[in-house]
Design goal:
Length: about 325
Amino acid sequence: MAETLYIASALLIFTTLAPHIPGKHWLIRVWEFPRVQQLVVIVLVLIGWALLPVTLDVTAFVFIAALVAAGMYQVHWILPYTFLWKTEVPYSKTRPAHSISLMTSNVLMHNDNSQGLIDQVSKHQPDMLIALETNQWWEDELTALHEDYPHRMGCPLENLYGMHLYSKLPFEKKSLRFVVEDEVPSMQVDVLLDDIPITVYFLHPKPPSPTENETAGPRDVELAIIGKEVAKCDKPVIVAGDLNDVAWSPTTRKFRALSHAKDPRIGRGFFNTFHAEYPVIRWPLDHVFHSDDFTLLDIKRLEGYGSDHFPLYIHLSLTDHIDLPREKTNT
């Protein structure tokens, strides 16, 4: 029994420290994801140390102390995404003059329940829908949305990185981009919300994993590039999509620091969107960040429909000082 506790403690201490090992290999970076799960296991092992008949010598106390420190360190990362933390984005206090709702959904390319997504869209009626992992089959299936969503962009791909954008709001500008990798698209649009221009980025970089990119490098670079662009944007801006990164990771924190974007989940919850089929290994992979021009009306994880991701819905209100389009300044 003592050997089991020592081995479990050593593994938990190592995996807590692993993300700080120099390098971007997926075997290192993957441990940024399951911090909640690690914390739960740390607590269980500490209970084992307390209740099981094990001799508590100096070595045992060293392991226990290190395990407690590891648990506190995990709490440090995830605590902002609990109700114990102050919210970063306030709720809208008044009925908004201008608001925008978005729904982001990684459909899982091989999922054939397109009607499930269509039903969710019909129920919640977002102003904009970004569907990820879409191929030509999904593009054909989602033609049912065309009547309600006359403004569209599509990039059907068979490599799990296709994306389709459906909007009720007209586009002023639209751009299909391949920011870092030739086979991984992103979209950037300027939409008009009651004649107010808003810039929206939709992203889906590859994750570090044994079946995708061996390292986190391309994902990290893409998020850094977009973060710097967002910081320079002179319009209200939103960034949405499956970033293949958790909300509390150093990469996402760096993106938020570069972009000055707000995270409406802070102080409200994890809003775990992946994995829809396995509750034990869930974490927040789908995100919506925005500039300080918005307050929150609603955010919620929607019901699953066969994908490995739950859809994420958010409704934002423009703050009072953005009632008119911003005048462009000469530079």
